[in-house]
Amino acid sequence: MTCSDVERVLPELLAGDPDGLLHSGDGGIQADFDAHVKTCPACSDLVLDLKLIASEARQLAASEEPAPRVWVRIAAELRAEGLISDPASSDSARDEFARPIVFPASARRRWGAWWLAPVAAALLAASAYVVSHKPVSQVAKQQTATVPTTSPAAAASPVAEAVAVTPTPVPAQVPRPEAKQPAKPMVAAAQTAEPAPNSPAPNAEDRQFLSVVSTLSPSMRVTYENQLQAVNADIRETQAYVNRNPGDADARQHLMDAYQEKALLYQLALDRIQ
Amino acid sequence: MTDPKQGITEAEAIEQAKQGHEAAFEVLYHLHKRRVYSLCLRMVSNPAQAEDLAQEAFLQLFRKIGTFRGESAFSTWLHRMTVNVVLMQLRKKGLPVVSLEETLEADDEAPRKEFGTKDLKLTGSIDRLQLQRAIDKLPPGYRTVFVLHDVEGFEHNEIAHMVGCSIGNSKSQLHKARLKLRDYLKFMRAEKAKTG
């Protein structure tokens, strides 16, 4: 058997065995193969290398962890489709473990346009306004905490509509200074996080958010704190990447999604304390 | 399989999920998320797309969970569903799921170029990160078969059925994929040796 013969029969001889052991019903080929490999360093190395690649590849199965937002989106979709029951009315509500956060049914998973970044920032700003300008007890009594009643709220209404419907331009209807310069609140948000090793201190909006969720049960509070930390970390990392690679459309979309996620996290916290 | 956090078994979670219990869905998700996401990531080499595909795979699973009767393992059912989701996405994008050639081409029989020194044998150790990068460099068709067989453990007859090729083609593609990976890994090792 020659080296070319070895390469020709190798796919069949290696097929079907997870350990890469050579097996064949034809003792003749197997014997010739074994004899050649024993005397040919190149073929011997080839066989061993291919076996090694196959065995190392198996270690890659289940080696990656998806971001927390994947479950959040799945849960939101399941809720929107009516496939899961209200956690408040189920036995699971009594669980002491942290519950996953699900988005309101009106939330949309993905916007397609980069110019919606100001919309997400405005939603963040609107939520922060509600939290910062009303006492916690008053916020808790609100029936509809999502739409502020003062002029920023009037401007935020089209923002809320833009969230709930298919994306349409929201040009000049967001009067808040933060919304006119969307990069600032985004950068501010990106620069803050939950107090954690190697992470910046929370900004004013995050502190307000944490103050609000501190009124919830311990397990819920921890859940929200962890979600905030995760989304802030995601924003920081993605923002840094986008700064280095401004032409990467996928990265910009990812950053867009991260801000959307944070905005909806604020929204959800407000909904829960009603 | 039991979720240590929730203290319920997979079978219990499946039954509760059929009744719409959110916690049960979450248990099933956390039990299988790494396998599903890793499969998607290996197949498309893009984390954002992999997240979308993993999300879609779980959503399809949860929508159909009422039909699961336990004839096969739940993980097997989910695994196949995930593969179908990914392959459908690849087909939608017009990417080749697997090449059509049945046998080794003539140029594949020619002596392969050895990168740099022959002393850098691959045998003995493979850096996992380099292997991941090498897999990402594979042509889509080769990557599909390699991931399904060597990473995920599907047999050639299963792969042939899923991707719509012959068993011989599946074996051929796998072999080519492994050869290419070997070349990539040797090249990476040679480059690393040069830079020190």
Output the CATH homologous superfamily of the largest domain in chain B: RNA polymerase sigma factor, region 2, helix turn helix motif
- Helix-strand pattern of chain B: EEHHHHHHHHH
Main beta sheet of chain A: strand number and arrangement? Answer: none
Radius of gyration of chain A: 27 Å
The overall strand count of chain B is 2
CATH topology of the largest domain in chain B: the name is Rna Polymerase Sigma Factor, Chain: A
- Name of the CATH first level of the largest domain in chain B: Mainly Alpha
Task: Report on the architecture of this protein.
The complex is a heterodimer of chains A (274) and B (196). By secondary structure, chain A is an all-alpha fold. Chain A contains twelve helices and no strands. Chain A starts with a helix and ends with a helix. About 40% of the residues of chain A have low confidence. Chain B has two domains: 91 residues, RNA polymerase sigma factor, region 2, helix turn helix motif (Rna Polymerase Sigma Factor, Chain: A); 90 residues, Orthogonal Bundle (Arc Repressor Mutant, subunit A). Chain B is built from nine helices and two strands; from the N terminus they run ββααααααααα. Chain B has a two-stranded antiparallel ribbon with strand order 1-2. In chain B, strand 1 and strand 2 form a beta hairpin. In chain B, helix 3 packs across helix 4 and helix 6 packs across helix 9. The longest helix of chain B is centred in the last third of the chain and has 29 residues. At the A-B interface, helix 1, helix 3, helix 4 and helix 12 of A face helix 2, helix 3, helix 6, helix 7 and helix 9 of B.
Provide a concise account of the structure shown.
The complex is a heterodimer of chains A (274) and B (196). Chain A is an all-alpha fold and 274 residues long.
